[in-house]
């Protein structure tokens, strides 16, 4: 056994010191209990796939036992196991901000009949734990691309000014129009602005922000995405659906945009 293997073996024995769970989130649907977690792993530990496999098994059990349920404050404790656990691993915090994991895993509860959702294609299967793993071998070039091609904060703020003003106005206006008893003006406004929503959503998709503006960029992108989807859903969704899926989030989007904007200027 070489020196590197010995070091990795020792790290596996003390692996709690080499990772941090950054986020656990209940992303359940009406029919499926699903939990996801983002995990930061110290880079020297992450360099060994064998060590990561052991870590994936350990963290998967931890997240299952944590059993986070988003309605716990409404319904009390929830004891049933999730049907899916999705883990995303990062060896650099910037990767987490840009959504570039070094690997992903999917656990499926063997007590229920479910097909893979996250990883229909995978590189490795841990049969003993029913976990699928996908190694993201191309994340490093993408990481370098994002770092080298993101623009300065000054140029970024100039570039998003029109999009930012548009989003802030529309988020407030759509909420005001929807809250009227008569929804005719709300629906007419959606029709008149539908092309603008799509155009601005596409423009936002092409912008690479500097690191300190990433959270602002994320919420602005989410807001423009929701407006674009709202205009599409109007053709089929009823008013309750439009409110719960889109409109009720608009004041929250607006508040977070203002909060993130004040942090960076």
What would you say this structure looks like, in words?
The chain has 265 residues and is of the alpha+beta class. 54% of the residues lie in helices and 14% in strands. It is built from 11 helices and 6 strands. Strands 1-2-3-4-6-5 form a 6-stranded mixed β-sheet. Strand 5 (124-126) and strand 6 (131-135) form a beta hairpin. Helix 7 (153-178) runs antiparallel to helix 11 and helix 8 packs across helix 9. The chain starts with a helix and ends with a helix.
Keywords, separated by commas or semicolons:
54% helix, 6-stranded mixed beta sheet, 265 residues, globular, alpha+beta, 11 helices, disordered N terminus
Mean pLDDT value: 84
Give the strand line-up of the largest sheet: 1-2-3-4-6-5
Helix content: 40-55%
Order of helices and strands: HEEHHHEHEEEHHHHHH
Radius of gyration from CA coordinates: 22 Å
Distance between the termini: 54 Å
Count the beta strands: 6
Coarse shape: globular
Structural class computed from helices and strand pairing: alpha+beta
**Count of individual helical segments:** 11
Strand content: 5-15%
């Amino acid at each position: 056994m070489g020196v590197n293997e010995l070091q990795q073996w020792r790290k596996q024995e003390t692996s709690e010191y080499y990772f941090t769970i950054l986020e656990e989130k209940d992303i359940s649907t009406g029919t499926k209990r699903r939990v996801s977690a983002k995990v930061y792993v110290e880079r020297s530990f992450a360099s060994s796939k064998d060590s990561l496999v052991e870590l994936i098994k350990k963290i998967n059990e931890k997240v299952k036992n944590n059993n986070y349920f988003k309605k716990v404050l409404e319904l009390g404790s929830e004891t049933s196991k999730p049907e899916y656990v999705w883990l995303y691993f990062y060896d650099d915090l910037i990767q987490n901000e840009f959504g570039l994991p070094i690997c992903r895993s999917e656990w499926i509860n063997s007590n229920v009949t479910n097909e893979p959702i996250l990883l229909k294609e995978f590189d490795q299967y841990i049969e003993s734990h029913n976990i699928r793993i996908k190694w993201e071998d191309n994340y490093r070039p993408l990481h370098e691309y994002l770092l080298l091609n993101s623009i300065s904060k000054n140029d970024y703020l100039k570039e998003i000014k029109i999009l930012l003003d548009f989003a802030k106005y529309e988020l407030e206006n759509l909420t005001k129009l929807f809250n009227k008893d008569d929804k005719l003006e709300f629906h007419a406004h959606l029709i008149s602005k539908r092309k603008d929503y799509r155009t601005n959503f596409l423009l936002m998709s092409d912008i690479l922000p500097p690191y300190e503006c990433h959270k602002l960029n994320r919420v602005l992108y989410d807001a423009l995405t929701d407006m674009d989807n709202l205009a599409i859903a109007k053709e089929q969704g009823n008013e309750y659906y439009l409110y719960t899926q889109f409109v009720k989030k608009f004041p929250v989007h607006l508040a977070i945009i203002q909060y993130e904007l004040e942090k960076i200027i």
